[in-house]
Design brief:
By secondary structure, the protein is mostly helical. The chain contains six helices and no strands.
Length: 205
């Protein structure tokens, strides 16, 4: 959109071929961004991620190369956040470098080394901040998942503790009934024995 606005203001002129190719790259970029799981699910996770980020960085470069670098940094920044979600810290640096190259090379193609270098510093800072905030969000999400897991474990432990307390209460009641039955049996047996002895003694006399 930024590129088309720039072209409408007369700053840049695109041929029909450039516009068709640029729009095609943008459509492919969006389709891969929305349906990458379905598209790359037949590949192992590492290979799928490699293909996804490689193709997306190439598409960002293609859009910037055909339509100019006006808005490619907006297109490339979400890839930094996705890299934080999917890749190990070491693997993310290759994606960051790919994003930066995809943004800066079109600037170098359309402008000077000095402009490309200064914009490279700015966009590298932007990638850094996107990565930092994405990592903060990821940490918060992982902490929430861990807290929810601990809460479920605590709930399960409380439920088991309640069951154990109920079982202990039933066991104590059973033991008390058995003690009372044993006491009654012993006392009644002793009493009947005495009565029997007295009856026998009475018969003798």
């Amino acid at each position: 959109i930024v590129n088309f606005i720039t072209a409408a203001q007369g700053v840049a002129q695109y041929s029909a071929f450039q516009m068709v190719v640029g729009i095609l790259f943008g459509v492919i970029y969006l389709i891969l961004g929305m349906f990458d799981t379905e598209i790359f699910r037949r590949f192992p996770a590492n290979n799928g991620n490699f293909l996804f980020f490689s193709i997306q960085c190439a598409l960002v470069l293609g859009i910037g190369w055909t339509l100019g670098p006006g808005g490619t940094w907006l297109i490339g920044m979400p890839l930094a956040g996705i890299a934080v979600d999917r890749l190990a810290p070491r693997g993310r640096w290759f994606v960051y470098a790919g994003i930066l190259a995809a943004i800066v090379l079109p600037i170098l193609h359309y402008s000077t080394w000095e402009t490309a270098f200064m914009n490279g510093l700015i966009y590298a800072s932007a990638i850094f901040f996107v990565a930092i905030f994405s990592q903060i969000r990821l940490n918060e999400q992982q902490a929430r998942i861990k807290a929810e897991g601990l809460a479920k474990q605590l709930e399960s432990a409380n439920r088991r503790l309640t069951e154990y307390a109920s079982q202990a209460e039933e066991l104590a009641a059973t033991q008390e009934r058995n003690r009372l039955a044993r006491d009654i049996h012993d006392n009644l047996g002793h009493y009947l024995t005495i009565v029997n002895v007295q009856i026998e003694a009475a018969k003798v006399t």
